[in-house]
Design brief:
4 helices, mainly alpha
Length: 131
């Protein structure tokens, strides 16, 4: 039976390492140690930045608003107008949240804000109501 304190592949001895010598199989994992996960993987999972949902929403609404606003005969105003307003609102909220989160989501929120504002500025020039 194997010693409870087996030697780790990087050379240090740790408790809890148990070789799979008694069964004679390596359990299909390609190593004689099984059930071991590097500590760096667990640490990386904890360091994921929080998402900026306002930024993604502003980008999606900005793209939809820019696509639907130029449809003529007032259809574009009813379909694209709300998307434009939501893109501007979520874009402002996304920029504020991005500054608070250390720069996460600033670019998508700024692009969504720009697309929504551009589509809103197209309305006085005939987008959505004139052919």
């Amino acid at each position: 039976m194997a010693d409870r304190h087996e030697q780790h592949p990087d050379g240090e001895r740790r408790s809890g390492w148990q070789a799979d010598d008694q069964s004679g199989a390596d359990r299909g994992r390609g190593s004689r140690f099984w059930g071991w996960q590097p500590q760096s993987v667990a640490m990386d999972m904890q360091r994921t930045p929080p998402p900026n949902g306002f930024a993604i929403s502003a980008l999606i609404f900005g793209i939809l608003g820019l696509l639907f606003t130029p449809i003529p005969f007032f259809i574009g105003l009813f379909l694209g107008g709300p998307f434009d307003l939501l893109a501007v609102a979520f874009g402002i909220a996304g920029v504020r949240a991005g500054r608070r989160l250390g720069g996460i989501g600033l670019v998508p929120s700024a692009v969504g804000l720009g697309l929504g504002a551009f589509a809103l500025l197209l309305i006085p020039f005939g987008a959505g109501w004139a052919w």
